Amino acid sequence: MAAAVAALDLNVVDWNAKYQAVLDADERGFEAAIAKGVTLAAFYGRFMACAAEAAAAIVEELGLPAGLKTLPPMAAGGDAATDAVYYFKGMLLRVAEAGCGAGDAAGGMDAFVHAAGSVAATARKVAAHELRGLAALHAASVAAGREGEGSGPAPPPLSTVMSVLVDYGGFRVYAMAAPPTDDARTLVYGTSDDGGPFVQRSTAAAAALRRVGRLLHLKPHAVEAVVAGAGGVPTPRTLVIPLSVELQAHECADGRTYVLNAGRLLPADLPDAADALSTLTATLRPELVARLDRPLSSDAFRSSASGAAFSIGAPPDAASNDVDAAKASQYLLTTVVPRFVAGLEAAPVGVYDSATLTRALHAAGINARYLGRVAAQASAPWLRELCEVEMVARVLKHVLARSQRTLVRQVADAT
To answer: How many CA atoms lie within 13 A of 62 on its CB side?
Structure first.
């Protein structure tokens, strides 16, 4: 989305400037912290309401020709069916499942049992990973800023853009405040949206990324990338980077360093041999990564040798990074899940419905995709039943969403 921002008129509603101002408010002292929290919650509510309004209009008009839409897509380049970006009152929006097409309806009920059978499920998860990655980066950046207080100069904190997910009519819409970024002028780390060479132009941004990576328990690792060589000629090179190769850092005119494209920030879980896209959809929880005895690579299981859909080439440390991530996956299944089940059955406090069960799983570093393992290891009937109800509800949610998307596409085919 960053490539389309430069031409936008942000005078309508500059959500980003207002959001950053709220984040900058003093929170020292109890009253100041409470006031900031209330202000931030109210601001989030306004942003969410605006995003929901736009998402409803976009989804309801997906079947209409562009000329008849009240909120037409921007000319963002690429495939209009898959890369359509919408602009509404200072925010940018994208429909996650826009490019799924006929593949969305393939696979019957198996599509809801295995991620490999559902193209739409992959698109929805990738959008959710972007939000989760930004949240992790924001928390780590705040921690990095607090670490530097009173200890002299510190790397500038990284800024994130306010973003939300809106599920409407079977579609998932990703909405973000339009950031003041432009690949040609502000990109100092990463690859531009149009697939240009990998750049590392700022030592300050690199230092901030390394510091945030340390706090997230993510280690620098090698990747094979194309950089601008002598005379600007694209040249393959092995680089050592602190976080995901897809991450972008932008130094902008407001003095902030913004991070974008955080969907692959967290390491992939042990890949499913039957699903080449599992390295995109199945990642480890940040809570688990933070508790491991050794840091992991953001780009684990993404080398060319792993057969991943997204590849970082064949850097020299890829195999060892994959082994570390595999050990983390094994630790999750053999230690964390059994410990979680035993602890919950011994003291079943505060877990009684979908929301509390999900929060407890995430706090323990367990992904919801392992609900089946939790249920299988549970001896208490209440916990097993709670997990089973949650699994059925999640499947039905996807079934209903696919039915809604099918109706929208039928309307589109008829117009």
So the answer is: 32
Six-digit token string for 231 = 């005379």
Q: Are 244 and 262 in contact (CB under 8 A)?
A: yes
Alpha carbon distance 106, 101 (integer Å): 10
Closest CA to 136 of 66, 81, 208, 212: 212
Contact between residue 145 and residue 138 where contact means Cβ atoms under 8 Å apart: no
Beta strands 187-190; 86-88: pairing state: unpaired
pLDDT digits over 214-229, tens only?
999 999 999 998 888 7
pTM of the model: 0.87
The mean predicted confidence, pLDDT, of the chain is: 86
Angle 296-144-299 from CA coordinates, rounded to 5°:
20
Angle between helices 15-24 and 30-60 (to 10 degrees): 160
Dist. CA 396–CA 246, nearest whole Å: 33
Give just the sign of the alpha carbon dihedral 176, 180, 182, 188: negative
**pLDDT for 262 beyond 70:** yes
Query: Which residues have C-beta within 8 Å of that of residue 61, sequence separation ≥ 6?
Result: 68, 69, 70, 71
Report the distance separating Cα 55 and Cα 94, nearest Å. Answer: 9
The structure tokens listed for 156 are 């500038």
Assign 366 a pLDDT band (cuts: 50, 70, 90).
very high
Give the C-alpha separation, 399 to 269, whole Å: 25
